[in-house]
Amino acid sequence: MVRFASRRLALGIAVTATLTATAVSAAWASSASHASASRSKGLTTVRVVFDWPGIDFEAVPLTVGNARGFYKKAGLDVKIVIPPSTSTTVQMIAAGKGDIGFDTTTDVVFGQQAGIDVKSIANYSQNNNWGLVAKPGRKIDVKKIKGKSIGIFADSWTKAMMPYVLKAGGVTASQVKQPIFGSDDIAPLLAGKIDLATNTLNYAIAQVQSGTGKRPSVLLATKFGAPNVPVWVYTGMNSWLKQHGSQAKAFLSATRKAFAWSIAHPAAAVKDYVKAYPKIGGGLKYSLDGWKATIPALGATSSLLTQRASQWKQVTRALKSVGLLSKPLPPSSYFTNAYLKG
Amino acid sequence: MNAFLRKTAVRLAMAALAVGLIFGVWNLVIFAFDLKAYALPTPQDSVATIYDRWSTYQPLMLQTIKETVYGFLIGAAIGFCLGVAMAASKIVQRLVYPALITSQAVPVVAIAAPLAILLGFGLATKLVIVALWVFFPVVVNVLDGLARVDRDLLNLARVMGAKRTRAFFAIQLPATLSPLFSGLKIGATYAVTAAVIGEWVASLPYGLGTYLNTAAASLDARGVWGATILLTMIGITLFLVVTAVGVVATPWERRSTARRGIRSLFINKQKGARRWFGSLPAGSRSESQSRPR
User: Fold this and answer.
1) B13 and B129 part of one domain
2) Do B117 and A191 touch (CB under 8 A)?
3) Domain match, A253 and A295 both
4) Using a CB-CB distance cutoff of 8 angstroms, which residues of chain A are in contact with residue B37?
5) Cα distance between residue A305 and residue A193, in whole Å
6) B28-32, B37-41, B269-273: lowest mean pLDDT where?
7) Do B23 and B130 have their domain in common?
8) Pair (B12, B47) in one structural domain
9) Does A16 touch chain B (CB under 8 A)?
10) Same domain, A82 and A117
11) Least CA distance to B214: which residue of chain A?
């Protein structure tokens, strides 16, 4: 019996050792194959990690930057890296799998809270375009949400914004149904499974318009007291920024030009994007609707990408009020405009 | 009894050692690659998180267990019935089998969203997704088990006057049990993953899968791994329960004598045979004909 047990033990150890060796060598091989930024065709490659596991129209300025030569003039070849999930962009740049991140503002705050030395280097949008969405033709009255079902996502932005919805409606969380959807709450809304959806309005409008041909009813959260702060920012690790400051500056300078061009020529910009990613879902109409709906959130051309200290104060205050953040840091810990100069 | 206790103690020790080894490898990977806590917390931290946040985890875990177990039972029942129906009728088999294979080839994620729209974001959607993952290995194994039943034994039973239903319960059903439990064990390991996917698509009330998403969105790696350990434990527990039921249901796999019902088939006693098959044909009454061994 003992002999039998020892043989099984030896076999178990041998199997475990083999598995460990395999896992360790696979991880080494994986890390070796992901070397940091490189040069190709005389251009420096900058890897931008997207915020979503699939590319969409928010990547229009980056693809325009490449297609219209803004990055080439700056000596850069910008490559978009798609993350495996909606919450891994910060982790990927922290692990050196990308150079610049495209994140939600809240991701920077949570990254810092988790001990990741990440910093926001530019705003993507200037305004908070998150809000409530209803079927086309339906009026949204935030004061009459008691007992209704409101589709939400699991992300931290939604969690930070929902208290403003509840406060405006004069209800507690238990007085409304809040089903969490993984990737889409617009289809259940159109199917009548929920009364209202929450979303950033550029995505909601694009989805509803491409699905029904009609514009949905929308109500921006800023209309009922939510802070008007940017949803998305470009980020970098402090360590990378210190070593590659000139690259970061060149990237943002070219990106600003690409933004201005994409705003001025939305149809051509989206065509560039669709040409770069011909196999994406949604197609030209969806992407054009989405990009056109994104433009109002980008703010005035004169202030493109520029961050404000007040936006970080408002975001951290909102996160603290819902218990997602214990100790807000000073705004300068979260952002810098230094790479927008020059 | 002593031998039994010793055997149990050795098995428990081996299981504890296996868990220790997994935790050891986990720590080793963190150390070797200098992984930070935001990427992969240590198993000790993850277990401590479960303790710290038990009041949060508990209701979520109960919800996920409910989805997993109910979905598993529904999937197993459907799988078993389909397997039997397909074995009983070649037409049904030819009609249904391609559909079954297609159902497994379609990515669940693709049909999950329409399911949520069709059935809502409550329990029903999750049950369908779990059942969809569980039923297939059960169907395949039951079908396989029924196909391998000894034809001679069935013929013998028929010669002895057994009706089709009686032969099914006395011979075919016991023969499917071993492959059935193999299918159920596979299904048990799939069930939790399926429940999590169901929760990711749409969820109210929330479960551990929903928590995984919300914790990940806040870069709360400890929360994510605490929930992951609990989900793993649900899967392992379900697997062990199925294994235990399998041990009880298939004693012939561990002992040389057959179950009483089957044994009575082979015993040349008119009374015993009558108990199973009703009236016996005249030719079956001789000892040489009815005793197969």
Assistant:
1) no
2) yes
3) yes
4) 114-115
5) 38
6) B269-273
7) no
8) no
9) yes
10) yes
11) A154
Structural domain ending residue among the three candidates A224, A251, A285: A224
Same domain, B45 and B12: no
Q: B287: burial class by Cβ within 10 Å (0-12, 13-18, 19+)?
A: exposed
The beta-carbon neighbor of B32 closest among A13, A24, A88 is A24
Q: Which residue type is seen at A211?
A: G
- Per DSSP, helices labelled H in chain B are 2-32, 43-52, 54-88, 90-105, 108-119, 123-147, 151-159, 164-167, 173-201, 208-217, 221-249, 260-266, 270-277, 287-290
Tokens of B46: 């993850």
Q: Is A324 an 8 Å CB contact of chain B?
A: yes
pTM passes above 0.80: no
- Read off the pLDDT band of B80 (50, 70, 90): very high
Q: Is A188 at the interface with chain B, CB within 8 A?
A: yes
Per the model's pLDDT, the better-predicted residue between A341 and A273 turns out to be A273
As a whole number of angstroms, the distance between CA B275 and CA B159 comes to: 15
Q: What CATH number does residue A192 fall under?
A: 3.40.190.10
B228 confidence band (pLDDT: 50, 70, 90): very high
In a domain, A67, yes or no: yes
Whether residues B28 and B41 share a domain: the answer is no
pLDDT, tens only, A267-298: 999 999 999 988 776 688 899 999 999 999 99
Q: Closest to B216 (Cβ–Cβ): which among A12, A27, A85?
A: A85
> By residue range, what is the domain housing residue B21?
1-35
At B117 the pLDDT is 84
Q: What is the pLDDT of residue B4?
A: 80
